[in-house]
Amino acid sequence: MASILDRYGIKEVADVTFYKLDTNGSPTVPVLYLDTLKVSTIEQTAETAEARGGKGNPALIMWDYGKEINVTLEDALFSAKSMAIMFGNGTVKTYGNDDAEDGNGLIMRTEQFVATGTEIPAEGADKSGWKYQYEAPNGRFYKKLNPKFYNADNTEVKDALVVNEKYFCSYDLEVKGSVIEISANSFPGTYYVTGDTFARSEASGDDEFFQFIIPKAKVQSENTITLEAEGDPSVFNMSLRVLRPADGKMMKLVKYELVGGADVTETPVAELIHNHTLIPKNEAESDEQAQG
Q1: What is the total count of domains within the chain?
Q2: Total-model pTM
Q3: Domain that holds residue 168
Q4: N or C: where does the chain have the smaller number of CB atoms within 10 Å of the terminal CB?
Q5: Predicted confidence band at 281 (pLDDT cuts at 50, 70, 90)?
Q6: In terms of domains, do 189 and 222 share one?
């Protein structure tokens, strides 16, 4: 049991885990594990009503109500699952599949080129300043599908190009990966959330285990991804609103010690005895017969 004089410091959260809730509001399977968090904040707010009176109209009695707890997680990295939980209902689907009847999925890209000839490139041909293959950052070349050509006023070009004029080409690339579908009626869900870290004792300087537990956390719908050319890469902020569970306990902060463990250096090691003398079966039978 910790003394009321014990003081501790907390610096960061080591990892946070989201669990799916069953129909009774109990945690089941883990659906998201975050171990690359940069900043984690827990903020409690409440409203206050007060009775005032007497000389100077000072506050005599105060009532607190409308308690709210908000948690913000700032992650340095993202996964398809974390993005799906932030922006949709948490579902990640396969996009494109080698075994699918209609082949892989398609993405559309657009590029600009200057015409070096008048002939509109047919599919599969490198002509008039346009290349039929897309050179990816990995150095490999990929086939451009369904190309369509447009001039500067967004009119599709079906006849001839004009040399030295600027044109745009929209085409498809065959891909496979994952897709997060964000529809108008899909919103982030509610989860059981735990966060594990360490509390450092001021007296001893040793770290002790510390965990916050949120039985019912609603992921907020407001999210922003910042994409900029300079500075640090974008971080991913996930905001949680703590809801009141059936027992009314919105959050638990647990500082604990593990029990029932053993020091490896003090654990007796069982002595393993091996018989390294090989006695073939026929020799063993001969010995038994001789002794008989």
Answers
A1: 2
A2: 0.74
A3: 94-177
A4: N
A5: very low
A6: yes
* Stronger pLDDT, 279 or 272, i.e. the higher one: 272
For 13-54, write each residue's pLDDT tens digit.
889 999 999 999 999 999 999 999 888 889 999 999 999 999
Residues 172 and 152 in one domain: yes
Q: In the block, which residue shows the tokens 């108008």?
A: 184
Task: Identify whether 292 is part of a domain.
Answer: no
d(CA 275, CA 273) in angstroms, rounded, equals 7
* Residues 72-85 pLDDT 10s: 998 888 888 998 99
Q: What is the 3-state secondary structure (H, E, C) of 198-218?
A: EEEECCCCCEEEEEEEEEEEE
How many residues are given for the chain? Answer: 292
Tell me, yes or no, whether 150 and 173 share the same domain: yes
Q: Does 35 share its domain with 71? A: yes
pLDDT value, residue 161: 94
Last residue of a domain, one of 126, 153, 177: 177
Residue 88 and residue 186 in one domain = yes
Which contacts of 118-122 are long-range, i.e. CB under 8 A and separated by 24 or more positions? 118/160, 118/161, 118/162, 118/163, 119/160, 119/161, 120/149, 120/157, 120/158, 120/159, 120/160, 120/161, 121/147, 121/149
Location of structure tokens 């991804």: 225
Residues 6+ apart with CB under 8 A from 146: 123, 171, 172
DSSP state of 266: G
> Is residue 167 domain-shared with residue 189, that is, in the same domain?
no
Euclidean distance between CA atoms 276 and 83, whole angstroms: 59
218 and 253 co-located in one domain: yes
pLDDT for residue 286 is more than 70 = no
